[in-house]
């Protein structure tokens, strides 16, 4: 990479030319370049979280991405060059006060590890989590705006890892791991997918979806952990679609926060005494069939005592029975409180005011991937999909 960029225009022109060159190599089956990749990170919007103890300085891009190995060179208020030991790695753009993205042409092995490390070591950063349910709405949208003969690519992933006993290291037990990719014309793909799902539930767990380019051939692979890969000839289109997906995601997250945050009101009784009134909509994640008791307890013991990824909730387990527990914990993104009532039939989540709505996306996405692809999700009495339809499709619910 050239490192003599002085302006946003210089950098974006370089990324545009790089994208065009890479697409030519793809079309000619002579790949020399690595693909341009973008990683979206969610941070924190202080204006919405009055109860948070997060310090403003800790949200600064320099503090989030700079460390002993990495340094940032500021180009303008929202764009930075990222270096590792004086080697240019990529560019970080502050999309808005809550989201930022890393653009890089490094190898996937390197850049995936770098993005994961940033999230692991920070209590401020989290990934953008796209569930199979959100992908379904995106798929319906792109089929409605693109020609039916345009192609998309989807990947479906399910890993029944909790069928394995983590307490016994030497035990050999097979568990279900499913990974299927397909390339298909947009015309009729929704009906075909619904047909397949009647027989294979794992097709509800979507790992990635290709969004066709608006300006030419190719498209952008969008992964469930907020990674975007540009397989088009346009960086401008890549950035535009990324920003639109982030805007939809942010809108959805903020709607969920408005509906789910627990607020306490003091109500004066007839005898002038003060009573507490609680306002909130719990998040209910209902399984297509009850979880096996072994799988349920394996998930509990693996996830919460150490706050393990990908769920990232650390908490004390209060056991009601073999098939039901209460968790009083903290989300390791922002270290905010979270309360869970978990059973083999459903998970119920309560978010105190100030806890990030991204917790809901992370749970839904990873429960579909590791426990049950065919879950139903409700925000109070409203289906999660109903809110998605409002945000993505503009439908009233």
Could you characterize what this model shows?
With 397 residues, the protein is of the alpha+beta class. The strands form two sheets. Strands 1, 2, 3, 4, 5, 6, 7, 8, 9, 10 and 11 form an eleven-stranded antiparallel sheet that branches. Strand 10 and strand 11 form a beta hairpin. Helix 4 runs parallel beside helix 9 and helix 6 packs across helix 9. The longest helix has 26 residues. The chain is globular. The N and C termini lie far apart (49 Å). 36% of the residues are buried. The model has no long low-confidence stretch (mean pLDDT 89).
Concise overview:
The chain has helices spanning 8-27, 61-65, 108-121, 132-145, 189-197, 235-260, 293-303, 358-370, 384-393, and strands spanning 36-42, 70-76, 79-84, 87-94, 99-104, 126-127, 151-159, 177-185, 206-212, 219-223, 227-230, 261-268, 274-279, 283-286, 313-321, 324-331, 336-343, 346-352, 376-379, 382-383.
Task: Provide the fold topology.
Blueprint: H1 8-27, E1 36-42, H2 61-65, E2 70-76, E3 79-84, E4 87-94, E5 99-104, H3 108-121, E6 126-127, H4 132-145, E7 151-159, E8 177-185, H5 189-197, E9 206-212, E10 219-223, E11 227-230, H6 235-260, E12 261-268, E13 274-279, E14 283-286, H7 293-303, E15 313-321, E16 324-331, E17 336-343, E18 346-352, H8 358-370, E19 376-379, E20 382-383, H9 384-393
Parallel strand pairs: 12-18
Antiparallel strand pairs: 1-5, 1-6, 1-11, 2-3, 3-4, 4-5, 7-8, 7-9, 9-10, 10-11, 12-13, 14-18, 14-19, 15-16, 16-17, 17-18, 19-20
Helix pairs in contact: 4-9, 6-9
Pfam families: MJECL33
């Amino acid at each position: 990479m050239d490192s003599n960029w002085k302006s946003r225009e210089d950098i974006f022109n370089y990324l545009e030319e790089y994208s065009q060159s890479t697409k030519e190599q793809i079309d000619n089956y002579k790949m020399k370049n690595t693909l341009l990749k973008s990683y979206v990170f969610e941070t924190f919007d202080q204006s919405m979280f009055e109860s948070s103890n997060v310090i403003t300085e800790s949200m600064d891009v320099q503090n989030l991405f700079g460390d002993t190995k990495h340094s940032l060179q500021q180009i303008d208020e929202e764009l930075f060059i990222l270096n590792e030991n004086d080697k240019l790695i990529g560019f970080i753009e502050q999309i808005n006060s809550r989201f930022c993205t890393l653009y890089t042409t490094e190898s996937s092995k390197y850049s995936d590890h770098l993005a994961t490390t940033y999230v692991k070591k920070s209590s401020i950063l989290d990934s953008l989590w796209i569930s199979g349910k959100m992908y379904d709405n995106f798929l319906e949208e792109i089929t409605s705006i693109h020609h039916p003969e345009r192609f998309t690519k989807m990947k479906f992933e399910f890993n029944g890892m909790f069928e394995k006993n983590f307490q016994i290291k030497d035990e050999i037990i097979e568990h279900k791991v499913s990974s299927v990719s397909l390339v298909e014309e947009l015309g009729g793909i929704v009906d075909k997918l619904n047909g397949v799902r009647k027989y294979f539930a794992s097709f509800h767990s979507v790992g990635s979806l290709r969004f066709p380019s608006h300006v030419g051939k190719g498209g952008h692979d969008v992964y469930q952990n907020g990674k975007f890969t540009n397989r088009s000839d346009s960086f401008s289109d890549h950035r535009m679609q990324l920003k639109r997906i982030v805007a939809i995601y942010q809108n959805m997250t903020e709607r969920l926060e408005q509906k789910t945050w627990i607020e306490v009101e003091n109500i004066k009784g007839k005898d002038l005494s003060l009573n507490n009134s609680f306002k909130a909509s719990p998040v209910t994640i209902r399984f297509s069939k009850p979880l096996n008791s072994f799988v349920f307890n394996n998930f509990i013991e693996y996830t919460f005592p150490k706050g393990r990824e990908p769920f990232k909730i650390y908490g004390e387990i209060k056991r009601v029975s073999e098939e039901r527990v209460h968790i009083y914990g903290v989300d390791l993104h922002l270290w905010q409180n979270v309360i869970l009532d978990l059973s083999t039939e459903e998970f119920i989540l309560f978010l105190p005011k100030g806890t990030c709505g991204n917790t809901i996306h992370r749970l839904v996405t990873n429960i579909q991937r590791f426990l049950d692809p065919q879950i139903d999700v409700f925000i109070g009495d409203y289906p999660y999909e109903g809110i998605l339809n409002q945000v993505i499709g503009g439908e009233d619910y």
